[in-house]
Fold this protein.
Amino acid sequence: MASATYQTIRIPCQRDQPTVLKDVLAKDKTVTLHRARDIRFELGILRDGEIEDIADFASVTVSVKRLEERDGPALMRKTVVNASFDNDSITTAQWEAGTHEQVVAAFPDADTALPLARAERRKFWLSITAVTTDGETLALAFGEVWMIETGAGHNVEDVTDLTALESASDERETDVTALQLSANPSGTGSPEGVVNGNAGRFYLDTAANVIYVKTTASGTLTGWAPLGGV
């Protein structure tokens, strides 16, 4: 249900096939995110226009990524588990009336303060996926979204800022294994020499307990930069 204290975005999703994103509160127009503001995504999972039983969903995830890196790491990500769903009592009429939703994914303002390249708005890629209790991943909805400036916080085009956001989002949602860490095969304190042989984006120096992240120049892998200790 919408509230004046945060931005509410209400998105219908299709279980049988992924749909293009639309916000029913904005009369089904393109989803627009307000930068550096609390954002609440309200989701309804439908089939043929009717609320669908999602008891077999283990979780639902809302992710925001760079538009040019749709398969890359998320700048914003929120996973909602089955225990938090409103699946048993919600009706199609309640969803259409805007009084109930099956899944709520809420992001605080700190998570939504993405760099906009000193512009008033910028496009990102938003996807909504589900993982079933059988381990199957389903795409529910996806598409381009605008993020617009609200005047809160700094607004820069800084690759370091975006990389830090990607890392922070991963850290909140995953464990070290999911970060695609690979131990230094040589056991030395430097990742040099394994740049081209390491398939992961991150590298764990087991001797110094330091995480490195791949660095690039014009899209070409150039080396590793220390991201922080573990």
Residues 171 and 222 are 24 Å apart (CA to CA). The first helix runs from residue 92 to 97. The chain has two domains: 7-157, 177-229.
